[in-house]
Amino acid sequence: xxxxxxxxxxxxxxxxxxEALARAVADHGGSWExxxxxxxxxxxxxxxxxRLAAERAPDLIAALEFLGQRGLKVTIEDAPLAVAxxxxxxxxxxxxxxxxxxxIREISSAMAAVGVNVVELExxxxxxxxxxxxxFNVTAVLHHPIDRDIEELRETLEKIAGExxxxxxxxxxxx
Length: 175
Hints:
This protein is an alpha+beta fold. The protein folds into two domains: 2-79, Alpha-Beta Plaits (2-Layer Sandwich); 88-172, Alpha-Beta Plaits (2-Layer Sandwich). The protein has four helices and eight strands. The strands form two sheets. Strands 2-3-1-4 form a four-stranded antiparallel sheet, covered by helices on one side. The chain has a four-stranded antiparallel sheet with strand order 6-7-5-8, covered by helices on one side. Helix 3 (103-113) packs antiparallel against helix 4 (150-164). The longest helix has 15 residues, at 150-164. The model has no long low-confidence stretch (mean pLDDT 93).
């Protein structure tokens, strides 16, 4: 029987952390399924899905805990092998505007209110070309319920864009 684990990892950034993680997974017969990893503020952080034979999971878990000696904290959660799926359309959200506190809170609150699930979220800051002011950039992949009107979401986001003085683009993707 198979088992699916979701790992979250964080530790001071240093060469070889991904290799150590990959070695532990491979040495225990695991399959590296999906992952998102990045260096943030001097730390390496990520999330990873691993599938493996259920009887091999305890040994992998022990090996992952051993990575703590390299400063890598690993949190392990069992994931369901079959996930219920709802019908949704995939949307891409792009936002750019002058940086200020609360942008993500406002946008995420509006999306949650209309049943939108944030599947991926990437944020960052950059310097405006002419003024040099700090710009806040957001890229997100969203799942919007197929039975909800997409115009409701567009109108809500346009209203917030005006209030926050940011540019928002929302496009349906092919998935």
